[in-house]
Write a structure and sequence with these properties.
There is one protein chain. With 123 residues, the protein is an all-alpha fold. It has one domain. The protein has three helices and no strands. Helix 1 packs antiparallel against helix 2, helix 1 crosses helix 3 and helix 2 packs across helix 3. It is elongated, with a radius of gyration of 19 Å.
Length: 123
């Protein structure tokens, strides 16, 4: 295997490992979240009810987490490719740097979206 191919594989595997950590943390949070409200109020959507913590996590995960993860993978893969062509860094460094930049960009984009829609208010 050539050195460039090895660097690229290492960079993409580093990105994959880093992005697996939040997925595992989310799966753990969903498993331990209660399926009913502590005060016994109704669960669900509509008629004055609110989703349980478990269902709320799943909703947020599918509405924001999944698109954010896909955007992070796409941006990270693009940055990996650019860094592989333009630098001589080790694959792990490229994977770390591209993943952290992609995560920061996606967090900034989600925060900007939530701020514009009024769902997030800054003090």
């Amino acid at each position: 295997m050539s050195k460039n191919r090895h660097r690229g594989l290492t960079a993409f595997l580093t990105m994959l490992v880093l992005l697996t950590l939040p997925i595992v943390a989310f799966a753990f949070a969903v498993q331990v979240a209660p399926k009913v409200h502590a005060d016994g109020s109704c669960t669900g959507i509509g008629f004055g009810c609110t989703p349980s913590p478990h269902d709320g996590l799943l909703l947020v995960g599918f509405l924001f987490g999944l698109p954010a993860l896909l955007a992070t993978v796409a941006i990270g893969a693009l940055l990996n490719t650019v860094f592989l062509k333009r630098s001589r860094w080790h694959g792990i460094v490229i994977g770390l740097l591209s993943t952290l930049i992609a995560i920061a960009l996606v967090i900034a984009a989600v925060a900007a979206y939530l701020t514009i829609t009024g769902a997030l208010r800054w003090p």
